[in-house]
Amino acid sequence: MSTQTTASVSTHILDTSIGRPAEGVAVELSVRDADGDWVAHGASKTDADGRCKDLPALPEGTAHVRLNFEVESYFAHRQLHTDKQISDKQAEEQQDAPRARDSGVFFPEVTIVFAVTPGEHYHVPLLLNPFGYSVYRGS
């Protein structure tokens, strides 16, 4: 039995549309305070493996946690990279337009709220594609 009084959180993102980790996605960690308000507690970006390894331990007494994934800019960046591979001329023309709105992503952000128990570790993987996502408690 654990004697820790805090919980910890980690996450990673797999872009299922390309079968690869999603690198560079901004992730914000928030905790619900005693008044029921959300308070920012940490932030990170996914690394080349799609992982956030540096999220801080949760404050003592935390019962609810929120992870917010900013995925629209990830898909916009990925689209720009794809455009450059198509052809230099086509990419030049397409770069003139705002790419975030042209990214083709249906969910511009993904917010996951979950309950935690002191002393436990919570790994929350996000399986992502431009038109959907799935999340679960990993190990």
From TrEMBL:
<dbReference type="InterPro" id="IPR014306">
    <property type="entry name" value="Hydroxyisourate_hydrolase"/>
</dbReference>
<keyword id="KW-0659">Purine metabolism</keyword>
<dbReference type="InterPro" id="IPR036817">
    <property type="entry name" value="Transthyretin/HIU_hydrolase_sf"/>
</dbReference>
<dbReference type="InterPro" id="IPR023418">
    <property type="entry name" value="Thyroxine_BS"/>
</dbReference>
<dbReference type="GO" id="GO:0006144">
    <property type="term" value="P:purine nucleobase metabolic process"/>
</dbReference>
<dbReference type="GO" id="GO:0033971">
    <property type="term" value="F:hydroxyisourate hydrolase activity"/>
</dbReference>
<dbReference type="InterPro" id="IPR023416">
    <property type="entry name" value="Transthyretin/HIU_hydrolase_d"/>
</dbReference>
<comment type="subunit">
    <text>Homotetramer.</text>
</comment>
<protein>
    <recommendedName>
        <fullName>5-hydroxyisourate hydrolase</fullName>
        <ecNumber>3.5.2.17</ecNumber>
    </recommendedName>
</protein>
<dbReference type="Pfam" id="PF00576">
    <property type="entry name" value="Transthyretin"/>
</dbReference>
<keyword id="KW-0378">Hydrolase</keyword>
<feature type="domain" description="Transthyretin/hydroxyisourate hydrolase">
    <location>
        <begin position="9"/>
        <end position="138"/>
    </location>
</feature>
<comment type="similarity">
    <text>Belongs to the transthyretin family. 5-hydroxyisourate hydrolase subfamily.</text>
</comment>
<comment type="function">
    <text>Catalyzes the hydrolysis of 5-hydroxyisourate (HIU) to 2-oxo-4-hydroxy-4-carboxy-5-ureidoimidazoline (OHCU).</text>
</comment>
